[in-house]
């Protein structure tokens, strides 16, 4: 059996990584919530915090 060598050229899709992190943030917020569902206001709050963190890390010039 022949296995191809691992390459050191990792490609990062910053938008995809941000979306995965956003899903994690929403899951954490939902698991910490006392009610069965997150309120629309709480979802907006989580989304806003995630957007601010993304802009701090990648800048406002990042294309969506």
Write the layout of secondary structure elements.
Elements: H1 14-32, H2 40-58
Helix pairs in contact: 1-2
Index terms:
0% strand; 64 residues; mainly alpha; elongated
What does this protein structure show overall?
The chain is mostly helical. 59% of the residues lie in helices and 0% in strands. It contains two helices and no strands. It is elongated and about 50 Å long. The model has no long low-confidence stretch (mean pLDDT 81).
Query: How far apart lie the N and C ends?
Result: 42 Å
Could you give the count of β-strands? Answer: 0
Q: Could you report the average pLDDT, rounded to the nearest whole number?
A: 81
Order of helices and strands: HH
Low-confidence stretches: none
**C-alpha Rg (nearest Å):** 17 Å
Strand residue content? under 5%
* Biggest sheet features: none
Count of DSSP-assigned helices:
2
* Gross geometry: elongated
Q: Into which percent range does the helicity of residues fall?
A: 55-70%
Please identify the structural class as seen in this structure. Answer: mainly alpha
């Amino acid at each position: 059996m022949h296995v191809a060598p691992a390459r050191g050229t990792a490609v990062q899709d910053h938008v995809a990584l941000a979306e995965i992190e956003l899903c994690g943030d929403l899951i954490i917020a939902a698991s910490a919530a006392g009610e069965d569902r997150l309120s629309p206001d709480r979802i907006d709050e989580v989304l806003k915090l995630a957007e601010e963190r993304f802009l701090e890390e990648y800048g406002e010039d990042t294309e969506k």
